[in-house]
Amino acid sequence: MMPNTRRDRLLLVYVCFFVSGLAGLIYEILWNKYLALFIGSTGRAHVMTLAVYMGGLALGSAVFGRRADRLRHPLLLYVVLEAGVGVLGLLYPVLFEPYRRGFIALVRWLGLTASALMAAKLVFCALTLLLPTFLMGGTLPVLGRFMVSRLDQVGPRVAALYYINTFGAFVGCLLAGFVMIPAYGLHASMVIAACLNFVVCGAALLLWATRRKGGEAAAEKPAAAAVSGTEEAVYPAALRGVVLVTIAISGFVAMVYEVAWIRLLTLVLGASTYSFSLMVATFIFGIGLGSFLISLKRRQTGYEKIYAAAEIGLGLSVLAMLPVVERVPFWFNQLATVLVRAPFAFGWYMAAQMAICFLLMLVPTVLLGMTLPAASRIATEDAGRVGRRVGSVYALNTAGTLLGAAAAGLVLLPEIGLKRTFETGIVLNLMAGLAVLWMLKGRTMAWVRPAATLACAVLPLLYWMKVPRWDENILSSGPFRQRGRFASFQAMLDMLANREKLHYYKDGVDASIAVVDSEGTRSLLINGKADASDVGDMSTQILISHFPLLTRPHSKQALVIGMGSGVSAGSALQYDIEHLDCVEISREVVEAALRYFAEANLHFAEDPRASIHIEDAKTFLQITPRMYDVIISEPTNPWIAGVAGLFSKEFFEVCREHLVPDGLVVQWIHVYEIQDASLMSVLRTFTDVFPYFMIWNMNAYDIAIVGSPKPFRPDFAWMEKQMAKPKIAADLKRIGIEHPLALLAMQMFVHTDRPADLFGDFAVNSDFHPTLEYRAPIGFFTGSPATGIKSLDMRAWPVHLRRLWIDQYQPSWKPTSEQFAAFRPKPGQRDSLFDDKPAAWADRWRAAWPDDPQALHEWIATRGDRPDWQREQLAEAARKFPDHAALADLRAQVLFRLFERNDPDSATLAAELREAVERARALHPNRRWPYARMHLHAAWRGGQMGEALKMGSEVFPHIAEIRNKEGDEAVFGVLRMIGEAAVARGRRDVAERCLAEMRQVLPRDIRLHRYESAVKRMKE
Questions:
Q1: Beta-sheet pairing, 521-526 with 579-584
Q2: Could you give the C-alpha distances from 701 to 479, 677, 718, in angstroms and in order?
Q3: SS3 sequence of 705-721
């Protein structure tokens, strides 16, 4: 239906610009993801992409703003601009591969230097983004020119266009981040965005045709003489000049705030792709709301006061936020821990994150949203020049954002830190607002100007005196990882007080990095998340290098992806490799690792064979000509934005391209805080590229997948030879491995001789359909472990079905019993996914040393689920090794457990228990009271109250210890036996002491009443 009234046509224009803003933000997100696939996702690459994007918008706004004022039909130019953006959007997926190959060719032609790489990135950012963003930049001034025919329309209509376009961008941000990319992938989302542009073109053409039919085309370009505006509505030239300068400063500060807020909120909310979408969406929403509020203004005067007040208010509102920053992690903890950690509650978790974003950003961004429409009205002195003026204001503001993004990301954050970055923005805001304020005249300005100036000087001074620094312990605490609810802010501080020392904290270009000591562990924190340590993570960090280098003989070229603490690189250099490349995205991680983990990483950076590259791993692998024997990929968790790309099929294919024909790739992945479908997706993606693979299990939290494009076999002679070398042996000894058997016991799955489609039911994670990036945060939120991986654990299979290397291995040198003991996994210890690993290890120990009593003890002890079998074996062991203390203690414990079960042969068992307890007591003179407790139970059950009372006198002083270890029910039972023995033997004093203790332990227990009656009868 054709729009018939001016109101209908105005509504149609607004709908067009809403959809245009929606499509524009989808493009921005998609372009950023596409470009990250070859120029990388480093902070510098992001800044470069954003700078080119903003530069294109600024240039388009300036050029087309001037052009629009000379056109009779600016609406047709708007159609052309939208159509151009749509066509380029449709072509982008087709052009992507030529772009990528051109980038690689240019870098190699220029040379693999840092400057050449930066130049190539800039060229291809411009080639990719400059033309479409140039066209997009022209839409606001062109449509503004079309909408405005009188000077009094400039303020409300430009503001309306701006807020409607911004609200469209807000919706586009949420659609792209939460719906389109997860559901349809990059290519389809790009096509959808292009179709939205074409829909806008169709609607705009419909509007143009309607106006021509109604004879209103001439009204599109009013003559200057027809302008109806009062003289007071035209602002002085000097004021207009100051506003044009300060709107550029405002754009600069806006981007400084956005970058700083995102970094701050990343420390609080985590770095998932959903969190980033919410942060950006909140920022955009606030700007749109500010523009909406100013669009309601109808008077033609007062825009200069609004502009000055908005700039000053923006600075002061951010200033008011800074003193409470340290409490934001606590507030998020209080919100997030209300939720059940189940997938259905993930949406509410996102709502809690958005609430924190609004808390920090809403007021400042609303004020920020008022500045550009107000500046557009102040700068426009003639409705016939509205395109040029709006274009100039928009261009200057966008150019400011370009510089602000570069300055905040590349200079301010790394050089002065997060807090000072905010403070720099505040100072610039206040200066800009005061510069405009002092240009204003009027009776009220005589006292407003000095009062505002005084406030802008005194309030920051008071803040700097009150809050000289932020507590970096709180900022790096990682509240998004806390599952429990803090009772108070002080309770949170008490928890953080356990940190012995904060060695290092720096807000870098790519992340905020900290190194802390806590409870004997030194940890490397990236955006508040522990990514490496010198204690708990050592088995993973060391073994991920040893697995491939012990498997593939004579490896000379190695690549480590993700430096972390540097331990993996240090372990790799213990082999006779010729060259090792270590690629790390964050310069600050490298600095922290080299300064604070040098002992743990064996000072690997001092080895001339090692080269450290500060670069995105994808970019590095695509541009390097080097071929590798071994590639070790150890990134952080895939729920963190951008990291899932290092688990994609395209990334694994690039790894394969840089492998020698029989080379190996090892990929780390965690099994905690990840859903089964996500973990199986990683396995499906990896094995599609490397069909010959095996899986190693370093501990209960991590696995390593080792794969190759060709079949491979174990070379046990090579493995033994390498593990006998002093440097390699010393490195493995750090985690208790002193023999190949200890290493091979960690292998959980082998499929290295033929390919197999084991994971075909699971999704492939692709760069262009990044399912893992959007699924992994849900697994992190729920905290669920991927238990399905246990079904692949061949260690639990019958021997005739499994093909584990440990079953093929015939050691040429037998491990000593001490070596078996050193590496034995203790029952209940979280060092493996294999629940029966202690028993399997004990089997090998006893098979190697059948006459060793310690091996026999471990073999029996690990079968705790078979107490009757243990009783038989321990009886035989007592005859064979009568003086072995550990076997005697185990026998007493097993018999005591059986005795507590009320077995039918309790009389026989009681006698056997007494004999075992007496032997254990004799062999353990320093542990008499635990055996006295066993004796007490047997005597009490047998009615030997005198003996029970005697044993009870030894046990009674240890009542508190029993309660702490075993709980109230256990200690109540012990007290009851002693008390009843005391009643039977007429020892009223002991009986009353037991009664008093029992009343404290279980005061309402019904058994207490019967005992109280017995004690009362003693008194009578």
A1: unpaired
A2: 21, 17, 29
A3: EEEECCCCCCCHHHHHH
User: Could you read off the pLDDT of 37-94 as tens digits, one per residue?
Assistant: 988 887 778 888 888 888 888 888 888 877 776 777 788 888 999 999 999 999 999 9
**Dihedrals phi, psi of 341, to nearest 5 degrees:** -85, 70
How many percent of the chain have pLDDT more than 90? 54
C-beta of residue 631 within 8 angstroms of C-beta of residue 663: yes
Would you state the structure tokens that stand for residue 824, as one six-digit string?
A: 């034995």
Q: What is the pLDDT of residues 966-982, one digit of tens each?
A: 888 889 989 989 988 99
Residues 548 and 741 sit within 8 Å (Cβ to Cβ) = no
Classify residue 618 by burial, with Cβ atoms within 10 Å: 0-12, 13-18, 19+: buried
| pLDDT of the residue at 876 | 93
Three-state DSSP class for residue 846: helix
| Helix residue ranges, H only, 597-640 | 617-623
pLDDT band at 209 (very low <50, low <70, confident <90, very high): confident
The two tokens of residue 816 are: 């000593």
448 sits in which H/E element: helix 445-466
- The residues near 972 (Cβ < 8 Å, ≥ 6 apart) are 998, 1001, 1002, 1005, 1007
From residue 318, give the alpha-carbon distance in Å to each of 364, 434, 513, 578: 6, 16, 24, 54
574-621, pLDDT tens digit by residue?
Answer: 999 999 999 999 999 999 999 999 999 999 999 999 999 999 999 999
- CA 1009 to CA 993: how far, in whole Å? 15
Q: How far apart are CA 969 and CA 963, in angstroms?
A: 8
Distance CA 811, CA 832 (A): 23
Q: Given the structure tokens 């973990």, which residue do they identify?
A: 679
User: Would you say the C-alpha torsion 226, 218, 292, 406 has a positive or negative sign?
Assistant: negative
Instruction: Classify the C-alpha dihedral 760-763-767-773 as positive or negative.
Output: negative
Contact (Cβ atoms closer than 8 angstroms) between residue 53 and residue 28: yes
Q: Name the H helices within 828-924.
A: 837-848, 853-861, 867-880, 885-900, 906-923
Largest pairwise CA distance in the chain? 120
Q: Confidence band (pLDDT; 50, 70, 90) for 222?
A: very low
Pick the range with the lowest mean pLDDT from 205-214, 419-428, 440-449, 649-658.
205-214
| Residue with the two structure tokens 């025919």 | 149
Radius of gyration of the chain (CA): 36
Sorting pLDDT into bands at 50, 70 and 90, what band is 344? Answer: very high
- List the alpha helices (DSSP H) in 138-180: 139-147, 154-175
What is d(CA 881, CA 126) in angstroms, rounded to the nearest whole number?
81
Distance CA 357, CA 610 (A): 43
Say if residues 940 and 980 touch (Cβ distance below 8 Å). Answer: yes
Report phi then psi at 663, rounded to 5: -75, 170
- pLDDT of res. 327: 92
Q: In this structure, which amino acid lies at residue 427? A: V
- Cα distance between residue 831 and residue 636, in whole Å: 20
Which tokens go with 348? 């509410």
pLDDT of 1020 reads 62
Would the pLDDT of 1 be above 70?
A: no
Query: Helix, strand, or coil here: 233?
Result: helix
| b/e per residue 192-205 (b: at least 16 CB within 10 A) | bbbebbbbbbebbb
d(CA 687, CA 667) in angstroms, rounded, equals 11
d(CA 211, CA 215): 6
**Angle between the N-to-C axes of helices 771-782 and 273-295, in degrees from 0 to 180, rounded to the nearest 10:** 100
Tell the residue number behind the tokens 């998020």, with chain if given: 332
Residue 692 pairs in a beta bridge with 708
Quote the pLDDT of residue 717.
Answer: 94
Positive or negative CA dihedral for 797, 803, 805, 807?
Answer: positive
Phi, psi of 322 (to 5 degrees): -60, -40
pTM of the predicted protein model: 0.88
